[in-house]
Amino acid sequence: MLADRVLFIDGEAIVVDKPAGLPVDRPRDGALSLANHFESLAFGFQRWPQAVHRLDRDTSGCLLLSRNPKAHRRFQRAFEERVVEKVYWAVVEGVPQDEEGMVDAPLHKVSSTQAGWRMVVDTRGKAARTGWRVIGVHAGRALIEMRPETGRTHQLRVHAMHALGLPIAGDPVYGSGSGPMLLHARSLRVDRGDKPPVEAVAPIPPTFLAAGFDAPA
Questions:
Q1: Which residues are identified as catalytic?
Q2: How far apart are CA 164 and CA 42, in angstroms?
Q3: pLDDT digit string (tens) for 165-195?
Q4: Most exposed among 57, 59, 83, 94, judged by the fewest C-beta atoms under 10 Å?
Q5: Mean pLDDT calculated for residue range 119-123
Q6: Domain ranges of the chain
Q7: Structural domain 2-210, CATH architecture
Q8: What is the mean pLDDT of the chain?
């Protein structure tokens, strides 16, 4: 139950720790999605919450929900204006040569009948920027902190492969697809002027611990 995974709640916002495997939008295969949990996340409000942004189906961690239309518009504007602080953790299949960097590579959607659709780095695409740094190494793989300045589809997954030359572990599209995908929305912060910010930190998933990665000291 997502109601047991609430990281932050007040009259305007809820942040939940979305588990990997749960899609935000209703999938074509008829599987359960975030919408199936909205009633349990109302917490006494007549209006059900709404997702403000998206996480990939196989990405876990901080997901922001709004509790009324006015808050929803304000939070969406914050994402559009890139004033939301988002931190992701990813385990990549190898160790980068550099310790940190900034990826500035536009992303473009391509599709084919055989392979379906995916995002690629292409000058015709939309601007996409991601800062990153290594925060841990174990068994020939690295734990990377990623800070996206934009919010493009599959941005972190493509930028890891493009700039680091290393796919995110378990990525079924841009990597081997072997094992669970190790991408986690670790923290989220949205300033609200005179009000306290919406902020949350999601616990480290069991899949990361099983891979040998705990919180850096």
A1: 56
A2: 41
A3: 999 999 999 998 899 999 999 999 999 999 9
A4: 83
A5: 93
A6: 2-210
A7: 2-Layer Sandwich (3.30)
A8: 95
